[in-house]
Amino acid sequence: MIPGFLFATGIENSIPTIDGGRVRVDEMEKCGHYRHWRTDFDLVQESGLHVLRYGPPLHTTYLGSERYDWSFADEAFRDLYRRDLILIVDLCHFGVPDWIGNFQNPDFPELFAQYARAFAERFPWVQLYTPINEMFICAVFSALYGWWNEQLTSDRAFVTALKHLVKANVMAMQAILDVRPDALFVQSESSEYFHAESPHAIGLAEMMNTRRFLSLDLNYGKRVDSTMYEYLMDNGMTRDEYQFFLKYNVRHHCIMGNDYYVTNEHRVTAEGSTHASGEIFGYAVITHQYHERYRLPVMHTETNLMQGPTGEEAVNWLYKQWANVLRVRNDGVPIVGFTWYSLTDQVDWDTALRQNNGNVNALGLYDLNRNIRPVGAAYRRLIHEWSQVLPTQSVCLQVPIVKPSEYDPVLCRQRCYQRHRVLQSVGGDALKSMS
């Protein structure tokens, strides 16, 4: 088992469509990963990291129902296995193959679960998964803001996308557990907060602060409050669909991943519009809110900031986020990991991938020429220094994460039982129904 705190990075693999579905935004292509994937894996290890958020490109791997092209995945994952890296496999990151269409498709949950099972069967040594990345943000950007995929702008479209995304996530977890009984699921979800800009916006901000929990409420089988129940029912969810989430949650297999960026907090106007407020509460305060709601182990699964003109902007943000992680941990929240996302710079996130401009965003530990950035050097130092301290104190010592080289199918069920007991102890009432 891997000891200590889980320091991680990720390979950005967003694949939404824009322009009415005619243009595919493939971040692994834009960032050069298909050409430089061996170098990228080298850089992960050179940084002192043992954990990588990573997944094969869904749109080119999943060709049709029970039809797959594993050629790239086979080569990349064979190399990752050789390196013995701990993977958090990200199976769906903001988009689906053209033949599925978009997140309004009611067949998506079953089709995605089929893909998740096929992946787990092909790579049974993978233990950690984020089946669907940022379900809430994906539904908002695709069906409420009209930016990606279906590009719709209504509450009904949002609820439709959200229920399909979360149902797909739940069904995928169940399919993976059939293959790998000791699997763990890290829900990488955006941690949001909405601040009222004026007294007239208080009610709207309160509604938005309740709606931000919908993806995790459904995913973890927590009953929503009466306002959100009416909202869901008024916008197309049926009672049977709602009962599915209460009945089939597998929250005791989960670690709650909280993503936090400087854009995660918002000001709400009296008219109902929102705009970024910058950091007001910060990661520690907002993560406490999420932990108090779900009582699960936590991982900081995404953050970054543009390098800026001096290079110190991103470094300062790294240390600010790390201070917040330590604050949460010292307050007694079982936080097991931290992630700078992503390994390399990204492209066109300055317009939230809405425009295909080719603008390089200096957000990575390394630039697109694979040269280390100041934040990459700072993260390497942070990992080296804190790894000497945290293993003797971290709750992660008890979480049964198994290296690829240690995978033994005979021991999976035994480890599953051990993990069940550990999550019960570190997550408080993690195994209780949250009705």
Automatic annotation (TrEMBL):
Record's protein name: Family 1 glycosylhydrolase
Species annotation: Keguizhuia sedimenti
